Amino acid sequence: MKFVKPLLLWLAPLTFLAVFYFYPLANILSLSLERAEGGALVTFGEALKSAAVQHVLWFTIWQAALSMLLTLLVGLPGAYLLARYQFRGKSLLRALTGVAFVMPTLVVAAGFNALLGPKGWVNLGLMSLFHLEQAPIAFINTLGAILVAHIFYNVSIVLRLVGDFWARLDPRLEQAARSLGANRWQTFRQVTLPLLAPAILAAALLIFIFDFTSFGVVLVLGGPRYATLEVEIYYQTISLFNLPLAAVLSLVQLACTLALTLTYSRLAARLSHPLRQKSQAATQKRLTTWRTRLFAGLMIGFLLILTTAPLLALAARSVTSPSAERTRAGLLVPGFTLGFYRALTLNEQQSLFYAPPSTAVAISLGYADVTVVLALLIGLPAAWALSHHQKSKINQALDPILMLPLGTSAVTLGLGFIITLDAPPLDLRASPWLVPLAHTLVAFPFVVRSLTPALRSIQPRLRQAAAVLGASPGQVLRAIDLPLVGRALLVAATFAFTISIGEFGATALVARPEYPTIPMVIYRYLSRPGGLNYGQAMALSTILMLTTLVGMLAIERLRVGDGHEF
Amino acid sequence: MNFEHKMEQLMRGLSIANLHKSFGETLALRGVSFEIAQGEIVALLGPSGCGKSTLLSLIAGLEIPDQGEIGWNGASLGGIPPHKRAFGLMFQDYMLFPHKNVGSNVAFGLEMAHWAQGKMEARVAETLEMVGLSGYTKRDVSTLSGGEQQRVALARALAPHPRLLMLDEPLGALDRALRERLLVELGQILRAMKQTALYVTHDQEEAFALADRVVVMDQGQVAQIGTPQEIYRRPTSVFVAQFLGLGNILAGKIHNGKLQTKIGEFEIGGFETRKDGSVSVMVRPDAMRLEGMGSHQVNGIICGQVFRGSLCRVQIEIQGALLTFEFPSATPLPKTGETIRLGFDPEEAFLIL
Amino acid sequence: MKTKFFIIRLLFFLFLTACSTAEPASTNTAVGPLTLTVMVHDSFAVSDDVIAAFEQANNVKVQFLASGDAGSAVNKAALSKEAPLADVFYGVDNTFLSRALDEGIFEPYNSPLLEKIPAQFKLDPLNQALPVDFGDVCLNYDVSYFSEKNLTPPANLEDLLKPAYRGLLVVENPATSSPGLAFLFATIGHFGEAGYLDFWQGLVDQNVKVVNDWETAYYTDFSRWGGQYPLVVSYGSSPPFEMIFAEEPLEAPPTAAITTDGSCFRQIEFVGILKGTQNHDLAEKFVDFMLSPTFQEDIPLQMYVFPVNPDAQLDATFVQYLSLPENPIVLDPAEIAKHREDWIQAWTDLVLR
Questions:
Q1: I need a labelling partner for C111 at 20 to 30 A (CA). Which of A279, A414, C303, C346 fits?
Q2: CATH architecture of the domain formed by C136-265+327-351
Q3: CB distance from A429 to chain B under 8 Å?
Q4: Contact (Cβ atoms closer than 8 angstroms) between residue A460 and residue A393
Q5: Is B199 helix (H, G, I), strand (E, B) or coil?
Q6: Which residues span the domain enclosing A301?
Q7: What is the pTM of this model?
Q8: CB neighbour list of residue A38: distance below 8 Å, 6 or more residues apart
Q9: How many helices (DSSP H) and strands (DSSP E) are in chain C?
Q10: Which residues contact A220 (CB under 8 A, 6 or more apart)?
């Protein structure tokens, strides 16, 4: 019985992973390794001994670790603000910081360039302020750019995962420490931090894996001097067609992900404690003293600048006429125009693949909806099994595997998808379902990671209480767990939604050109010369931002079971 | 200022003067003042939402008052953060740190005060022994029963020798038998240590059993302060009387020195000069005797009886007023629906509020 | 309300799915039009009336399968050669041609239209891969920068080493960018295997800037778009496209390409019939169609490259502003395949380390 229950829960998630992840991955890896001259083992040995590979691996690890630490450092005060204080525009702030998460790298790079590039606002401002000849800040193609972009992308993970956990942490635990003589810092170190540890760990793991497998940021913002494993895999696969080496590197990346996740699971099991959860309303205070107002003001300002300034630069660019901007005088009044938005709605070239913005938005939203439903459908039972049968051997074995899709090279998996899902009954090669399926693979680990801490923290006594009152396991789920994890479900849904809206790497490999998503259309415009094309890319990027913002605000509004039920 | 006065101030302990606190639109406290002498146990009694918990937060320094003063031995505590007040606070649901074992929980306050390791261990053991949990040091707090958790919370709060121990509904979550046993033990422990304590509860039995003095609160204000006996014998307002379960309230009028009520006109000494116009009259539940006893007689119809062990609680309708009285169980009472004739002494039975 | 919106979106999506499954891939039955699947890279585009004309004339439905960038598409075709995903594959260029030919993914097809196509484009003597279009990777310069500084733009690759052009050039990394690789090939073709590294050493001494992708080089670093470098590696066709896709009509192209002999590399894109197709006749018809003037004339404005069929008429803007290099560099695809990794590695060691 103990064995059967978790196994039943695992049925859907495992079937999904087996068909859409392990099978394609195994297929492409074995196909690639078959091509190795002298056998796979030789290739392995050579790759691991190669100084170049070691160099790439080392860089990949330390930049990811550094990015993760910085993101946590930046995100934790923000998470505290969102968790403990009630203020106007909080949902908007939360949604705004999340928009970054979906933006395609090339667009974000353009945003950072408009802001911090050699002719960006900051540099131009500093130059005119201090009468400098040269741009004082060199940002693009530095290590700093990689780090800042990683923080930009991932800080919302901290805000969401840690912030939401924190919001449900009883503030009286901290008050108890204070009354026992602990100052603010001691209280944070000794009580708050250890209790937040499961959520922080979950966020850290996701961020690390994201940064560890970073591709676009390193490629575009880091420049040619930096390469992660993912970049190297892409280069070996696409440019050199060295599939055996690419497969070996993919496996190294997977092994690292697995090792990391194993460490995480060990730590998480040790660090999570049953906590009585409070409703957010009960834990949140208004900003009454000038100190808290100052802190909130600074924090909100900082988060907004970090996560929205590059995006606002884009939005500004989308309504600015470049011909006026071009004048070499430096700072000038740009000409306002809606021409790019108008051009978006015209199929000037009568292209077969033309999609008006409304269609691209509808397609993106459609894919996102299906991804949310699929990811929750398979993520919930997995998270459920993980949190309810913690000591089960099956869980201990399966838990780390769930994170693997995130640690898998998009190129490798994309090729695996194409060559595998091409025969009945799963002949999906031309099906629009491929896109949400691929998105679900990426979203799935996020869903599980955001649900598990919340489910784990529900005191078993509550469930037992319900069971004693005559509730069947299904009723316990509906009456106790669902309302209690409502907030976490929303977080999970938001992650799935945003991942789907912004995904490009896998989408480009499997999507039908007639049904382009917004990022696909943006790339189409961005890869062509001409002011109109560039402007349209910026305009559509702005539409993508707004779509994401509206979508996330809508999810925030749903508020399944948050608040009074606790 | 003479020396004696200064000494008195030093011994005074906690003083609270005219505290105001509001949260947005809601006024939580509206001018609360009282004092706690050192070594005294004061109970803060009131229904939920009366501002008890807010008051605790203010005293502990977790919240800042809008107005008013909190002092210790005459020195203001304004601006002193919670961790420097050396006040202990024990929460309703204990708030034990789930990531620390029993010993670490109890040792927490000592660590914060940088106690030496050996001294600390001794103190932890001593405190745990005091609450009857010797040998629990290494236990995980999630394995403890409710009563055990409560004791650990008490030990944790007591360990650093707080100048003042505040207990917020500490027995609220426990079953009745356990509650009564722990109440006695708690009293013994606090008195043995001469611990100054502020005990917050909505349960008058707890307050009366434990406290030297009781502060009754209502809607952010102090309704009455006094010893348990004073409060119970002489509640000064309808609210206090009703809150204490003294619910027999009659509307009355003072006219020509006489008290006029539904159940008759009475001359009561000592009241004529104090009140005029309409008044509320509390009729004590234990004031009625059977016919023939007391200076006044009145007829009533029995509407219901509840057997309560040593007592029998009887609802009696007298001249259209429904009143509840308590009789010793052995009293031979008529059946429900039958008439009963009662005797009483107004001076003893009535309290004009 | 929100649920409703959600359901509408879901229905919309299901509708999409239904539409797509209604047209089975490559499975041809007697009823209804046949489906021809054409695998393309993500830069592929075509006018809808052009395809509609083909579909109507042949009673066929053409379904396009996008497969990522050019390199990914070739990989995809190569890896799925046992069970081909499509009937026709368009988009392999001369830098990847050897990979496709070595993998043997194509069937030979001697299209009658090949006669018209100049020999310089026909790199595969077996006609497994048939040329469709070409584009030249050339240096572009910012016209106004040079006129404002009264500086003559460089005339050829050698000029780039002159002190006047120090710090003016941005190029793409050949390891990650297709034009970057093409430009490396141009220098190899021009200076020979013995001399190209010396040239690059010269460029490094001249402070050449390297970025990873065309988008960054063109839209971030090129001075036309707000950067600091007036010289960029882009396409020979970029200047006329700056005219056509200008936000406001321009009088003259703001950029120009340097097309002197030996300074550009010519990329040629090919189409081929995938081995194992069930629709051989239709596939041949489609290849013929791609080489015919109807399709060829549609190419420039859709894909920003140029037709190989001289019968195709070019848009007036191109006639006026496009300067095609007389003698671009063309390397043997077999040579490219053989040396690609070493060349890139040598370049990386020299320029990036």
A1: C303
A2: 3-Layer(aba) Sandwich (3.40)
A3: no
A4: no
A5: strand
A6: 4-22+63-327+338-558
A7: 0.81
A8: none
A9: 12, 11
A10: A105, A106, A109, C212, C213, C215, C216
Nearest to B81 among A177, A183, A271 (CB): A183
Q: What is the CATH number of domain C2-134+267-320?
A: 3.40.190.10
> Residue B2: its pLDDT value, please?
54
Residues 82-111 of C with CB under 8 A from A: 83, 85, 99
Domains, chain B, in order of start with CATH, read 3-241 (3.40.50.300), 247-352 (2.40.50.140)
If we measure between CA atoms, which residue out of A458, A497, A498, A494 comes closest to residue A479?
Answer: A458
What size, in residues, is chain C? 353
Touching subunits of C (3+ CB pairs, under 8 Å) are A
Would you list the DSSP string of B307-350?
A: EETTEEEEEEEETTEEEEEEEETTS--PPTTSEEEEEE-HHHHE
Pinpoint the residues of chain C covered by CATH 3.40.190.10: 2-134+267-320, 136-265+327-351
Contact between B51 and B32 (Cβ < 8 Å): yes
Angle, to 10 degrees, between the axis of helix A193-212 and the axis of helix A434-457? 160
Using the Cβ of C219 and the Cβ atoms of chain A, whether some distance falls under 8 Å is answered with yes
pLDDT digits (tens, 9 = 90+) for A441-462: 989 988 887 788 777 767 666 6
**By the 8 A CB rule, do B112 and B161 touch?**
no
Whether this model's ipTM surpasses 0.95 comes out as no
The pLDDT value given to residue C159: 94
Taking residues C304-323, what's their average pLDDT?
Answer: 86
CA-nearest residue to A192 within chain B is: B97
Question: Is the Cβ pair B113, A181 closer than 8 Å?
Answer: yes
Q: Please name the member of C13, C40, C234 whose beta carbon is closest to the beta carbon of A370.
A: C13
Q: What is the overall mean pLDDT for chain C?
A: 87
Å from C145 to nearest chain A CA? Answer: 9
- The number of domains in chain A is 1
pLDDT more than 90, % of chain C:
57
Minimum Cα–Cα distance from A329: chain C residue: C226
**CATH number of residue A242's parent domain:** 1.10.3720.10
B residues 78-107 near A, CB within 8 Å?
A: 81-89, 91, 93, 95, 97-99
